[in-house]
């Protein structure tokens, strides 16, 4: 039995993904698949309340998040740039935002490079275990400078966007010479994402001393039996995990807790 592993089972479209998403929002404050929180609100409802109670090591946690419809976030330099383009402000007013974008963008590029340097080795190892050969993470983004942003200011004013900076950069997931977003099969892409999640969990546990909660939605159906055994063994050392599946037989291990998800309800079916 794996005490830290929770398996949630049920047919498709009964709410297993909703269960995982609610846990993600409750613990992280944002949705995993969209930045528009209003998309999580049930049709006809004005809000989506989420309550979670648990324990972080020895510290009790009691969390409540309420998602309500409202105005979206704004990027301040873009808002200032739009005022300049409309003739309501001057380029001097934009200058302080340009400096801030350059400073924060440089810090973000540095943080990304550091994170990928730490994630790269465990990602390659986990991907290799799952059968994705020669996997690697790459990031080629360059820090934005004030000169770079000012040089393209006329184009940015004309196009209505900030056209340089880390918000335009991508992290490359590759297998050998192939960039997987464009040239990987759907199966390879999913293996890469799974390997990245496992690598992130290891890194968080190493740096914080506390393993994170892994949320894995319907990954077992996409793996052959050998890879399922590899995943089960790896998750056993990762701390606490919640995995969804349509059939408990898909998991080649006995979970610490078995949940049955039905429309609007979750039942504990663990062996007593």
Shape: globular
Please state the second-level CATH architecture: 3-Layer(aba) Sandwich
Query: CATH superfamily, please?
Result: P-loop containing nucleotide triphosphate hydrolases
Question: What are the low-pLDDT stretches, counting only 5+ consecutive residues below 50?
Answer: none
Strand count, sense and barrel status of the largest sheet are: 5 strands, mixed
The amount of helix comes to 40-55%
**Total domain modules:** 1
- Walk across the major sheet and give the strand order: 7-8-1-9-10
Structural class: alpha/beta
Report what the structure shows.
With 272 residues, the chain is of the alpha/beta class. It has one domain: P-loop containing nucleotide triphosphate hydrolases (Rossmann fold, 3-Layer(aba) Sandwich), CATH 3.40.50. Helix content is 42%, strand content 23%. It contains eight helices and ten strands. It has helices spanning 16-28, 76-85, 91-129, 146-151, 153-159, 180-183, 186-208, 225-236; strands at 2-9, 47-56, 59-68, 135-139, 171-175, 178-179, 213-217, 240-245, 255-262, 265-268. A five-stranded mixed β-sheet has the order 7-8-1-9-10, with helices on both faces.
